[in-house]
Design brief:
Blueprint (H helix, E strand, L loop, with lengths): L1 E6 L4 H14 L4 E4 L8 H8 L8 H20 L3 E5 L2 E3 L3 H9 L6 E3 L7 E4 L3 E2 L5 E7 L6 E4 L1 H11 L7 H6 L6 E5 L3 E3 L28 H25 L3 E4 L9 H4 L3 H8 L1
Parallel strand pairs: 1-2, 1-3, 5-10
Antiparallel strand pairs: 3-9, 4-11, 5-9, 6-8, 6-12, 7-8, 8-10
Length: 276
């Protein structure tokens, strides 16, 4: 399966981390140049930043546009791809898992990641490998560091993006209910800044570069519009959950720490710097 790694050229340390990880797992990858907040025109940011439930930070718009670039690459290739942000840690069993996912039909999206929040999942696990299976994913909430997207799913996401709406990449994906989405369990990807949360590293530390930037102020005349959008979004989520509750459950995705032995053995100081 093709692997697309979203990376800012100036983040050479994260690129080195990913190259080492790919080499260790015997995986080939291609780079998708991330959209840089330092060069994003203010006009583009202003046009897209006011289309979601709150004003979007410039870094959030850039992250979203970087994923859009990856979706375009998937549609152009006509083949599914694993889309990775450059701080994603892969499980040791990822190569076989990706081979099995490659052969699947009638699916748009398979999420490999967990990020500390419960999801609305199907009750029946579909085995894929001796270590991993698939569950229906009815409602995700956070995280876009690692997912497989098929051309059909990438086109659906692009169609929505072309409507002029932007959002944090994870919210944009998880709110697209036309996607036939699945969740890998146990999870096969954890972001560097979540390793400590899952007991993979005692002193991983670090945080998202998006999260450390203050949110843009909300103009008083726009506040009502954002509140209305937020309300509509919550109503859609509530209706979604009610519509699938007879065949779903809300819970955390399981994780097998033994699948991340390389992460556990990494230098904590080094990983902390990468996670920032």
């Amino acid at each position: 399966m093709q692997i697309l790694i979203i990376n800012l050229p100036r983040h050479s340390d994260r690129l080195a981390f990913q190259k080492a990880q790919m080499n260790r797992l015997g995986l080939h990858h291609q780079l998708v140049d991330a959209v840089d907040a330092a060069t994003l025109p203010d006009a583009v940011h202003q046009r897209l930043s006011l289309t979601w439930e709150r004003p979007l930070r410039k870094a959030e718009v850039c992250c979203f546009l970087s994923h859009v670039n990856a979706w375009r690459a998937v549609v152009t290739s006509g083949q599914p791809a694993l889309v990775l942000e450059d701080d994603a840690v892969l499980a040791e069993g990822a190569p076989l898992l990706l081979d099995r996912l490659q052969a699947l039909k009638d699916i748009d999206l398979a999420v490999l990641e967990i990020r500390g929040r419960k999801k609305i999942l199907g009750k029946r696990l579909r085995p894929l490998t001796p270590d991993f299976g698939l569950l229906d994913l009815f409602q995700d909430r956070t995280g876009s560091a690692g997912y497989v997207v098929w051309p059909s799913g990438a086109q659906k996401l692009l169609d929505k993006a072309h409507s002029g709406v932007a959002a944090p990449s994870d919210a944009f994906i998880s709110s697209h209910y036309a996607l036939r989405a699945m969740q890998v369990e146990p999870a096969a990807i954890v972001q560097l800044d979540m390793c400590e949360h899952y007991g993979l590293r005692a002193a991983a530390g670090g945080g998202s570069s998006i999260g450390i930037v203050g949110r843009p102020p909300i103009a008083s005349k726009a506040r009502g519009l954002f509140i209305a959008r937020r309300l509509v979004s919550q109503l859609r989520i509530g209706w979604r959950i009610l519509s699938v509750w007879h065949k779903a459950e809300r819970r955390h995705v399981r994780l097998n720490p033994n699948q991340f032995s390389n992460a556990s053995g990494a230098d904590p100081t080094r990983i902390a710097s990468l996670a920032k």
